[in-house]
Design a protein that fits this description.
3 domains; mainly alpha; globular; two-stranded antiparallel ribbon
Length: 279
């Protein structure tokens, strides 16, 4: 009798354990569904790109270091700027972030984009459904989206960032070729690149160009008020000016204050800083 009861108890324990395991599996499946799918990044490609770019930067820095003397000052500066520019590209920034287990800002080195969870989709849909119902009750029609309100793709974002650098480089080439500021702004290649840049900016943020014009008018009346993007640009430029000033005054060049003030690149950077800050 005792042995029979033991056998029955054993069967109940086995059955109970199987049920617990079944419930746990179901719970894990539900958890995975709720969490959605995380983005998958190509760390190997990011590492390879960063290593290659780091090597290029070192080579440029070595070339700059080899160009000694005041006669080679301009060439040294150009090499240093080239090296610095490589570290500011969207690809390099994304590669660095991925290797630190952070999401890339510019959409590079992404194998698979993140997929929202079912719960997140449902949560996002609820406010829209409620708003649509409210509009229907009130008799209001939802305003139509502007044709360019869909935002820009990672490829277009990359093109936009590249255009900004290309415009600066092209303007510098034209300036060194003897063209005035007015002639540079009318140059066919500059006009084309600026038009495409503005087109992408408007697509990314519809109405931003009109807003910038309005802001410019207001700043002329009440004192210049910088946007967040302009503040970031001003901060970056201030840092670049100070770094360049320190380098000219350092043991590499040993420039006096007068020589620093007369340096063409310093004058150009200072003018840009003054125009941006409005001071």
């Amino acid at each position: 009798m005792a042995s029979m009861e033991s056998a029955e108890e054993e069967q109940e324990r086995v059955k109970g354990g199987a049920e617990v395991a079944k419930q746990a599996a179901a719970g894990l499946a539900l958890f995975a569904k709720d969490q959605g799918e995380a983005a998958e990044f190509d760390k190997d490609a990011a590492q390879a790109f960063k290593d290659e770019t780091d090597a290029k930067m070192k080579a440029l820095e070595d070339e700059a270091a080899a160009l000694t003397g005041k006669d080679n000052k301009k060439a040294r500066t150009e090499k240093s700027k080239e090296a610095s520019a490589l570290s500011k590209t969207p690809e390099y920034i994304d590669a660095t972030r991925i290797l630190k287990d952070l999401e890339p800002k510019n959409g590079n080195f992404v194998k698979k984009a993140a997929q929202p969870s079912e719960a997140a989709k449902a949560a996002a849909a609820e406010p829209a459904e409620e708003a649509a119902a409210d509009d229907k009750k009130s008799g209001k029609d939802k305003p139509k989206k502007a044709s360019g309100a869909a935002g820009i793709s990672p490829a277009e974002r990359k093109e936009l960032d590249s255009l900004k650098d290309d415009i600066i480089k092209k303007k510098k080439e034209l300036k060194e070729g003897g063209m005035s500021g007015g002639q540079i702004n009318k140059d066919e290649s500059i006009v084309g690149m600026v038009a495409r840049m503005n087109e992408l900016k408007e697509k990314e943020n519809p109405g931003c160009l009109d807003a910038a014009k309005s802001e410019k008018k207001e700043s002329g009346k009440k004192g210049k008020k910088l946007s967040k993007e302009q503040e970031e640009e001003l901060s970056t430029l201030e840092k670049e000016v100070e770094e360049y000033r320190t380098r000219l005054a350092g043991p590499e060049f040993k420039y006096s204050k007068k020589e620093i003030a007369a340096d063409p690149d310093m004058q150009d950077m200072t003018k840009r800083l003054k125009d941006l800050s409005g001071k």
